[in-house]
Hints:
The chain is an alpha+beta fold and 103 residues long. The chain has 3 helices and 4 strands. The mean pLDDT is 87.
Amino acid sequence: xxxxxxxxxxxxxxxxxxxxIIAAFCGVGSxxxxxxxxxxxxxxxxxxxxxxxxxxxxxLFLNLHSFAQQTLQVNDQGKLRDLLTAKxxxxxxxxxxxxxxxx
Length: 103
């Protein structure tokens, strides 16, 4: 039985941790989508995620990117903590698209 993996995307951070999204197939069943975290010492953890899960994560990443482009003055960390939820980031991103705020 043929087993293959294709690394679709990889991101390496400053601490040497690598996060990859991988498509894998082992000859039976459907394609598996894996999020793989590799530590600098090469220990790794695989998390099989559904396509819906990838879509939700992708939308969250896009919303975080949109939000992070703004310069914020944080005077109240409690309010910032309350603001940083998936729902609020999504609403912010949709609002930003509606009124076309520039970064």
